[in-house]
Amino acid sequence: MDAHVLVTYASKYGATEDIAKSIGEVLRQAGLPTDVLPIDRVHNVLPYRAVILGSAVYVGGWRKEAVSFLKSYKHMLAERPVWLFSSGPTGEGDPVELVKGWRIPAKLKPIVEHIQPRDIAVFHGALDTQQLNVIEKWMIKNVKAPVGDFRDWDAINFWARGIADALKDAVVDDACLTYHSLPT
Ligand SMILES: Cc1cc2nc3c(=O)[nH]c(=O)nc-3n(C[C@H](O)[C@H](O)[C@H](O)COP(=O)(O)O)c2cc1C
Asked: Judging by DSSP bridges, how do beta strands 48-58 and 34-38 pair with one another?
């Protein structure tokens, strides 16, 4: 049986969850068995051949459950292909420029350097003020963050297709290695 791919996410209001589900759908359509799970429901990464992990960004950082996950599983993650993404900036333009060139919260850099992810993406997020609590509403108003759904599904699906291609190439490489190492 094919080992599954894991897409796991930390989301407060659902924007990151939708992104994770869309990535999972692209991988499944490419023929890769994929589990899409909230990060607090993942208790083992051993069964997975690859992990895609995303978090919403709040006040410049990843959600704490995503940080704990990275810390807990950093050794296992370093042994398999990993892709990371953030769901954050709202407003038009390059999301990396919107977060001033930031790719991963500074605090996470040592762990991320250990894991050596294949890629790190920053995607536009979505803000619906009706979902926010009073303090969050005040913060958003204070920093004048653009409100609305800025998620770029073309960019998200393009990134996911790149992951699918990389994982499918790896399956072909493994099959060739097995074939060539068979006794003649
Ligand atoms: C209180 C608050 C603080 C936020 N801080 C940031 C931030 O520092 N950087 C950023 O890019 N986005 C920030 N955002 C935007 C969220 O990351 C964005 O809305 C994200 O897509 C939400 O994902 P979720 O619905 O999965 O929780 C903030 C949103 C709120 C409500």
From this structure: unpaired
Q: What is the pTM of this model?
A: 0.94
Domain boundaries, the chain: 4-180
- Ligand 1 centroid from CA 57, angstroms: 5
Beta strand 61-62 with 48-58 is antiparallel
Ligand 1 atom nearest to CA at 17: 26
Nearest CA to ligand 1 atom 4: 58
pLDDT at position 180 is 72
Give the tens place of pLDDT for each residue, 114-166. Answer: 999 999 999 999 999 999 999 999 999 999 999 999 999 999 999 999 999 99
User: What H or E segment, with its residue span, contains residue 21?
Assistant: helix 15-29
Query: Cα dihedral angle (20, 119, 156, 141), rounded to 10 degrees?
Result: 80
User: Which residues line ligand 1 at a C-beta cut-off of 6 Å?
Assistant: 11-17, 56-60, 87-90, 99, 125-127, 132, 136, 139-140
The CATH number, out of the four listed (3.20.20.140, 3.40.50.360, 3.10.20.90, 3.30.200.20), of the domain defined by the range 4-180: 3.40.50.360
